[in-house]
C-alpha cells in the first residue's frame, strides 16, 4: 500500500502504525493528521478510495459520528458569544419542544445525551433523516424514554436534530450553513454538513464492517427485542442505517444530518480541533473551552449502548472498557483532558488542550466495534508516545509531571 504525505521525524511511530494499518490491520484507504502547537506534524494518506482508485491528498469520506463534534462546536460558538445559554430550558429557543414531559429539558441535556430522545416510536417515512422539518417536529412531539437529566444514553441519530435545531433557532441559519460560514470556511477546512454536489467525486464510499463473531450488546439487543431502544434506533430511521448503500447516496451526503452525516478527511477533522487545542482561538473563549471539556455524563451504563460511556457537553471523553467481553471492550484510550468524537467503524477526531494536540484518523473500511478500534487506537497511542505521554497499564494516557 502506498503511503503519501509528510511526517515529522519525531512522529515516525505514527507513520509506522499507519502503514501497519494498511498492510496488516485491514485498512483499505485512510488518512491521519496530527497537529501539535498549531503545527501539522503528521499529514498522511494512503491505500484505495475505491477499487483501483487511489486515496489522494484531497479524498474525503463519511465520518459518521465524528460529525457530532462539529455540531456540538456550533452550539459552543454561540454560547461563547453569549447568544446561547446552555443552562436555559430548550423551550427558551424552541418553544414547541416543551410537550409530553420535556418542558424541563435544558440545552445542556441535549449536548450530554441526557434528553431521553435517542429514538422515535412511531414509524418514520423513507428518507426521513433528509427532512429537517419533519425530524424537528417529530422530536418536539415525542415523549422521552426517561426523565431528561436523570440518566444518559447515546443519541446516535437524533443528537444532530436536537442540538442543530437550537443552533438554527438562535442563529437563523441551518446547521450546515452555520458550520460552513462560522467554522469550516474561516479555518479553510474540507468539511461539510451537507456536501455540495460538485464535491461528490472526491468521496471514498464506505466499506461496511464484516459481521463480528460476537455481537456487541447494543446490536444483540436490537436484533432480539424489536421494542427496545436499540431496535428503534436502527430500524426506525427511514432506511438510513439498514438499507445497503443508503448512507453513501447523493441524498444522504447532501442532507444536513448533524449526528452522522459529516464528510471530511483527517486533515479537515484535525483542523477543526486545532483552535481548541490552542485555547479556543477565534472560535470559543478560554472560559467556554473550560465548559466543553469536563465529563458530564459518566460513571454509569449507557441506556442505549449498554456499556459505560462518558460524555462532556457534546463530546466523547476517555473510556477504558477493556475489562468487558471482547465484543464490548472498545473504548477510547485518551487522556482525561482530551475530548472529541469517534465515528461508527473507528474514525476519530479530538483535541487535548494541555498537550496542545489535535488528532484525526478517517478511513473507508469500517470496523465492527462501538469505540476507537485497534487501527485508530494504535495511531492515537503512537501520537501520545511521541509527545512524551505515558500509559497506565493497559489503560488511559497521562502526561508525567
TrEMBL record:
Pfam families: Beta-lactamase (PF00144). Residues 19-368 form the Beta-lactamase-related domain. One of its GO terms (molecular function) is hydrolase activity. SUPFAM superfamilies: beta-lactamase/transpeptidase-like. Keywords: Hydrolase. InterPro entries: Beta-lactam-related (IPR001466), Beta-lactam/transpept-like (IPR012338), Beta-lactamase/esterase (IPR052907). PANTHER family: BETA-LACTAMASE-RELATED (PTHR43319), BETA-LACTAMASE-RELATED DOMAIN-CONTAINING PROTEIN (PTHR43319:SF3). This is Serine hydrolase domain-containing protein. It comes from Nonomuraea mangrovi.
Amino acid at each position: 500500500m502506498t503511503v503519501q504525505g509528510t511526517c515529522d521525524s519525531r512522529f515516525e511511530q505514527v507513520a509506522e502504525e499507519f502503514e501497519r494499518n494498511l498492510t496488516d490491520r485491514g485498512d483499505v484507504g485512510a488518512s491521519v493528521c496530527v497537529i501539535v502547537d498549531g503545527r501539522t506534524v503528521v499529514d498522511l494518506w494512503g491505500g484505495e478510495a475505491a477499487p483501483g482508485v487511489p486515496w489522494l491528498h484531497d479524498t474525503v469520506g463519511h465520518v459518521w459520528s465524528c460529525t457530532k463534534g462539529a455540531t456540538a462546536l456550533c452550539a459552543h460558538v454561540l454560547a461563547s458569544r453569549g447568544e446561547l445559554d446552555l443552562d436555559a430550558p430548550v423551550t427558551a429557543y424552541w418553544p414547541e419542544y416543551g410537550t409530553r414531559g420535556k418542558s424541563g429539558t435544558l440545552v445542556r441535556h441535549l449536548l450530554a445525551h441526557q434528553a431521553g430522545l435517542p429514538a422515535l416510536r412511531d414509524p418514520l417515512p423513507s428518507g426521513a433523516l433528509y427532512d429537517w422539518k419533519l425530524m424537528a417536529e417529530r422530536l418536539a412531539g415525542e415523549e422521552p424514554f426517561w426523565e431528561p437529566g436523570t440518566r444518559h444514553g447515546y443519541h446516535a441519530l437524533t443528537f444532530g436534530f436536537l442540538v442543530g435545531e437550537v443552533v438554527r433557532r438562535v442563529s437563523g441559519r441551518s446547521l450546515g450553513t452555520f458550520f460552513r460560514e462560522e467554522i469550516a470556511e474561516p479555518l479553510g477546512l474540507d468539511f461539510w454538513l451537507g456536501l455540495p454536489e460538485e464535491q461528490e467525486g472526491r468521496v471514498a464510499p464506505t466499506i461496511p464492517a464484516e459481521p463480528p463473531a460476537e455481537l456487541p450488546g447494543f446490536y444483540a439487543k436490537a436484533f432480539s427485542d424489536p421494542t427496545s431502544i436499540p431496535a428503534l434506533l436502527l430500524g426506525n430511521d427511514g432506511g438510513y442505517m439498514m438499507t445497503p448503500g443508503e448512507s453513501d447516496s447523493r441524498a444522504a451526503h447532501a442532507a444536513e444530518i448533524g449526528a452522522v452525516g459529516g464528510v471530511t478527511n483527517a486533515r479537515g477533522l484535525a483542523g477543526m480541533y486545532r483552535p481548541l487545542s490552542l485555547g479556543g482561538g477565534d472560535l470559543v473563549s478560554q472560559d467556554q473551552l473550560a465548559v466543553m471539556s469536563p465529563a458530564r455524563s459518566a460513571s454509569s451504563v449507557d441506556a442505549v449502548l449498554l456499556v459505560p460511556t462518558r460524555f462532556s457537553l457534546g463530546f466523547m471523553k476517555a473510556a477504558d472498557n477493556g475489562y468487558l467481553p471482547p465484543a464490548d471492550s472498545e473504548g477510547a484510550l485518551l487522556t482525561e483532558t482530551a475530548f472529541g468524537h469517534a465515528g461508527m467503524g473507528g474514525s476519530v477526531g479530538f483535541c487535548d488542550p494541555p498537550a496542545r494536540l489535535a488528532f484525526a484518523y478517517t478511513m473507508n473500511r469500517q470496523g465492527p466495534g462501538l469505540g476507537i478500534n485497534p487501527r485508530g487506537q494504535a495511531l492515537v497511542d503512537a501520537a501520545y508516545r511521541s509527545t512524551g505521554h505515558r500509559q497506565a497499564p493497559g489503560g488511559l494516557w497521562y502526561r508525567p509531571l
